[in-house]
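Appendix C reproduces, verbatim, an entry submitted by the partner laboratory led by Prof. M.T., so that reviewers can inspect both the input and the predicted structure.
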Amino acid sequence: MKQRAEERPTPSRSAPVRAPEVERRTLRELDPERLRCRLEDELLAKLERGADLSGLAARVTRAFDPARVRRDLLARSLRLSRSMAPEAYATLTESARVLGLPATGPELELYQSAGHENAAMHMVEAPILVEVQGRLLTQLDDSGLCFVFGHELGHYLAHGPRGERGQRHMAAHTLARGGALGGGGGAREGGGSD
């Protein structure tokens, strides 16, 4: 028996497409140095020759205020709680686990802000600040969000706030923005990465 057109079930246009459940293995002993782009080291070496990058890195690190970065982010965006965005937090937590960030490590904080669809990692050691912009959370399925969160957490691991590389990265961002001593960077202070 044929159904009339108005009786046929139609897929909901607003329901997000969910990827099938996949068990994701932890990337054991992830070494960001093995994944690093050769050009990054070449560019940092050129900066070292033309500027006192190590000296600037030390000054930027001393002037860097992680509490200010977090305050500025809170002032211009919405901090999403786990109860407000349980699926996004589950995906963020799973991305951190796969990349080898310990569950007992720094807390993960997720922020939503206006703007074009993008994401950013703010180079604060703890808590780990991940910002999504525009309608990114609603436009991506679980796999897409996992990719975005993994990318941003990769910034944290590869050139985050810890160690000499993180300090040099912050100094390079300061030079790229035409700044001197960490001045006026707001929430992007500290080398927010997209």
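Residues 1-15, 181-191 have pLDDT under 50 and may be disordered. Additional entries are available on request from the coordinating office.
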